[in-house]
Amino acid sequence: MVVLGVDPGSLATGYGLIEKKGEKLICLASGELTFRKDILFCERIHGIYRGMVELMKRFQPAEMAIEDVFFSKNAKSSLKLGHARGAALVAAVECGVRIFEYSPLEIKKAVVGFGGAGKVQVQSMVRCILSQEVSGGLDASDALAVAICHLNWTRYEKPREAMR
After folding, report:
1. How many domains in the chain?
2. How far is CA 41 from CA 11, 35, 36, 48, 53, in A?
3. The sheet that has 24-34: what strands, in order across it?
4. Rounded distance, CA 144 to CA 138, Å?
5. Distance (Å, whole) CA 138 – CA 164
6. pLDDT tens for each residue of the chain, 164 residues long
7. Is 47 within a domain?
8. What are the backbone angles phi and psi of residue 144, rounded to the nearest 5°?
9. What is the pTM of this model?
């Protein structure tokens, strides 16, 4: 089964595709959809949507795991994050990919074992779990962590119901 992990952001949206073969996790692709600050916000959101559709058509994931909404002190940043998530969610619905959401705490605990882990710690553990170097930056590693978290949930517990 192929799972697409997504770490949404309006300037950089990380993605990671992992295939599970038996007990082995194999990274098929990872990277970031990045946008300059001077590009209109609506164009960046459209770019996220187009990029996600392209990835889904190319790799045909069965499921997408995405970081759930979290609230920060800056309401404007939270709203922009929500728009980026929405673009990825709409792309998944259009492509017929089942959607699952995980909180940042769940993701970090599943990958690092500690909910307060930083991005560098997550990246290091992702490399260890996959036993390979992965392409992309910290947002790509975070996206792979989301996919790993999902595969851990479906492996050890009854799978969560897909978002409706």
Report:
1. 1
2. 9, 9, 10, 11, 19
3. 24-34, 12-21, 2-7, 63-67, 98-102
4. 10
5. 30
6. 999 999 999 999 999 999 999 889 999 999 999 999 999 999 999 999 999 999 999 999 999 999 987 666 678 888 888 999 999 999 999 999 999 999 999 999 999 987 888 888 999 999 999 988 888 899 999 999 999 999 987 654 445 555 54
7. yes
8. -65, -35
9. 0.90
Contacts of 115 (CB under 8 A, 6+ apart): 104, 105, 108, 109
Cα–Cα distance measured from residue 1 to residue 75, given in angstroms and rounded to the nearest whole number: 37
Q: Which residues are catalytic, by number?
A: 7, 67, 139
In a domain, residue 161? The reply is no
102 lies in which domain range? Answer: 2-156
- Record the tokens describing residue 154, joined without a space: 């479906």
Find tokens 């995980």 and name the residue. Answer: 102
Residues 33, 48 contacting (CB under 8 angstroms):
yes
User: Which of 33, 135, 17 minimizes the C-alpha distance to 84?
Assistant: 33
CB 94 within 8 A of CB 53: yes
Domain membership flag for residue 128: yes
Report the CATH number at residue 124. Answer: 3.30.420.10
Q: Is residue 162 included in any domain, yes or no?
A: no
Amino acid at 151: L
